[in-house]
Amino acid sequence: TKSSFSKQFDLGAAGTFNSVTVKGVLGGVNSKVTVKYRLAGADAIFGAWSAGTDITTLPGTVTISSGAGRYMEVALMIDDNGRLGVTSGMGSSEVSEVAVDYSVGKADGLACAVDGECINNHCVGLVCCNSACDAPGQCQTAGTCVAGTCAYGNKANTEVCDDGNVCTANDKCDGNGSCAGAPNPGPCDDENPCTLADTCSGGVCAGEPHPCTPGPCDLTSVCDGAGGCTKTYKDNTTSCDDSNPCTHTDKCDGSGGCSGTAYGCTSPAACETATGATCAGDGTCAYPANTGASCSDGNSCSHTDQCQADKSCAGTAYSCPAPAQCQQSVTCNGSGGCTMSNKQSFELCNDGDSCTTGDHCDGQGNCVGGGVDPACVDAGTADTGADAETDAGADAGTDTGADAETTDTGEQDAGGDVGFDSGSDTSYPSDVSIDGSQDASSDVGADDGACLCDMTYSCDPDCLCDPECPRPDAGRDAAADAATIPADTGAGAKDGRAGEKETASWRETPYSCSCATIWVE
Fold it and tell me: Which of 1, 33, 127, 136 has a CA between 20 and 30 Å from the CA of residue 169?
């Protein structure tokens, strides 16, 4: 909304208009009141309007400059057509009151007859003056009013005076209206209760400072002028700071004291040290790094772990090889080594040797062969020794070897105590089932190459028993398959050899030898 306003004020006598105050409500962010005024003397002839002054917040005040006069007209601008009032933005605005501050009387410097005609109530020498002009200083002469302002003359510099300073002597006027004396040392009182032993120095009185600064639990602390302090205290629920970093939850005690709960820095974390630790004042501590100390970084594949400058723990990394075929796992042990977990004995593996059979793990992480492939056996050479023995069996041939108790392919031994073949083909000599030869002796056992599985239930300590040693299904009873299976022609031989008949009295007895199951009588 818009509304116009214009009003004249009459002081009834000469006076001074000081300000205009506008009250009301401005609506919207762009609203404002533009105030203009013009003045008139006793003849009621108004001068020009003042420049407009904007008020954006109500109440608002406009100061009047050169406001001497009897009449003043105040207007509020509404538009650009010369009308006066309120300009509103978005919203509704309303002026509720316009107040004028003024003083009645003639301005200083105007002619007068009595004090009451003047705005400041001082008529000096028939001129309105800013003061009574009757209070010169001790080094001034009587005053006169010039253009409304009182002015005093100065006494000569020979005039005696008192500058009011106890620290000066022989005070005299300086010819400029001031009084000054020469410095006068000695005791004095600077009228400051927070100093002691006051003394004049260079014309100035001063003492030694003795302040009464309130402590953390002082409500007030006032100097008593005698070097002491008069205090009042905060209650015992007030938090404070006792300036001790190794206490926390500090509280006032109601008597001006401040104290907290003490604590120490004795519990450093990993890679921290209590040496050089400092309290933080809140129950916590700042611990230095324990650089170079042993620690554990939680990584089993690092070793010689040490604390770093940033309080971290780090070690030298290493790795372990992948598990071999007879190892279950290989893991780091945290000290630079590896821990192996081996597979159980008899788990299958491959020892990489094509001339072994029955390869298996030995429980110690190794892969070993259980026997020798017959295809890899050396056929041997004739035994030409002078002490050769012949086998009396039906297919007897003459053993001509010089090392009499050896059995080569296609040869027979005559002795009843045929034993190991120590000839050049010892890699796999056998009287039983491998080379087709037969022993006539009644005590022939299974000849297993370098490892003899004999009737004493033992093995050569350096070898594993041949898995090709006789098994329960190797021999056949004489009653079975008589037409097709040749008889065992050995004299009482009970070797359980495949392809031969055994007597009904022959029995199989299990006998374990390292990696294989051996059957003997």
Answer: 136
